[in-house]
Amino acid sequence: MSLYDIPLKTLTGEPVSLADYRDRAVLVVNVASKCGLTPQYAGLERLQKEYGERGFTVLGVPCNQFAGQEPGSAEEIATFCSATYGVSFPLLEKTDVNGDGRHPLYSELVKVADAEGEAGDVQWNFEKFLIGRDGAVTRFRPRTEPEAPEVVAAIEAQLV
């Protein structure tokens, strides 16, 4: 099964898949509203605004697996993201990224090594996976800011 075949659901429960974004570069990020890294939402939104029209999409994946830092309902998450950070990029339903209940999307993504050659479990909230227009995946760890030069360069290399 390719990444594009894995069924997903939006925050409002509508079916979606990465196939809907096949011709775009997609930055998949597990997000949380009560995390020290939550301000990264601002950088993610700036990336969406800057590159969205050029074939790029941020895809936020709320996750409550790290110290319970995303406890809200779908409606609470949507309200927080919109009111606090003006988030315009799509959000998926709350998802497990590690462990026995790991979503199939993350079962595939965690196989990808980061810049230091380390694959495996998601370390914390705001881990980033850039899925290129060619389907290749590049991984950035949580403390790498969304607008870090290496992230921006990887995104720009995928734009039309």
From TrEMBL:
Annotated catalytic residues: C35
Positions of the Thioredoxin domain: 1-160
Signal peptide (UniProt feature, chain positions): none
Keywords annotated in UniProt: Oxidoreductase, Peroxidase
Name of the protein this chain belongs to: Glutathione peroxidase
Highest taxon of source: Bacteria
One BP term from GO: cellular response to oxidative stress
Upper lineage: Bacteria, Bacillati, Actinomycetota, Actinomycetes, Kitasatosporales
InterPro entries: Glutathione_peroxidase, GPX_AS, Thioredoxin-like_sf, Thioredoxin_domain
Species this chain originates from: Streptomyces vietnamensis
Pfam families the record matches: GSHPx (PF00255)
Molecular-function GO terms, alphabetical: peroxidase activity
